[in-house]
Amino acid sequence: MILVTGATGEIGRAVVDSLLAQDIPVRATSRDPSRARLPDGVDVVRADLGDAAAVAAAVSGVDGVFLLTGGPEIPLHDKTVATAAASAGVRRIVKLSSGRAGDDTATDPIPRWHRAGERAVRESGVPWIMVRPMGFMSNALMWAGSIRAQDAVFAPYADGRVAVIDPLDIAAVAAVALTSAATGQVLTLSGPQALSPGEQVETLASVLGRPLRFVEVTPAAARDAIISHGVSPSMADAIMALRATALEEFTSVVHPTVGRVTGRPAGTFHAWAIRNLAAFG
Ligand SMILES: NC(=O)c1ccc[n+]([C@@H]2O[C@H](COP(=O)([O-])OP(=O)(O)OC[C@H]3O[C@@H](n4cnc5c(N)ncnc54)[C@H](OP(=O)(O)O)[C@@H]3O)[C@@H](O)[C@H]2O)c1
User: How does pLDDT run across 13-36, given as a tens digit for each residue?
Assistant: First the structure.
């Protein structure tokens, strides 16, 4: 059995589906199982990853853990799960990290949190695989409201290019990592092409069949918009520091890992947009 943390979120849910499709039994954590809406057959357990006793119960009897944590608690939660997994004799941990955890020059919060989490996993002694994706294609969903209301996208860093990845490819790689890949490796993942926000908007316009405006805004305006969606100012700062790195070459590098691990090419932003057309109206 595999334990999936963050199972009600975007990547975790896709990992659950991918494992179930291979008839692999899944246990999933949620802070509120009554709202988890996971498929029948999943053993959903209540656990906040800050609660060591709940985590110890969740890892009991599982062979592997898909470890997804978020925000400033990444180091603590990764350590709590990894320590419990070591005590329970878990045979592998696949940690969802961040592409930029591999950029030694990155000192902003999100890669720092993930590097500390990776360290805790390595130090636990449980065999591990680190999955380090670049920016998710689904980050474009944050534009859905202004596309629906104004046929426009307001975003900073117009010249930044990121080799964005389809979340389903991350889940497909994670499923292989949880079941058969050699442990002790770091899998850095990207999509097939580095794209600027304007190029992503052009693709969305062609898929939607109507013109969309791309309007570059200042980083300060983008930060305000994130906060207006209920994100704390400190987390907004961490997200903005990450977004600024779209201007660096590191995030535009295309990695062949998805094809190598899954045996099929990484999905394009065009294919992702077609699949998610309904969100943009
Ligand atoms: N977006 C990007 O471009 C990008 C790129 C690279 C890496 N990443 C990494 O991807 C991860 C986010 O993945 P995602 O977008 O799939 O997440 P998500 O959709 O935001 O889902 C978050 C999940 O975490 C669970 N959760 C939150 N707090 C918890 C707690 N205290 N205890 C237990 N569970 C908790 C939630 O479950 P419940 O609410 O059911 O408890 C939910 O399932 C982060 O580590 C991020 O750094 C993101």
Answer: 999 999 999 999 999 999 999 999
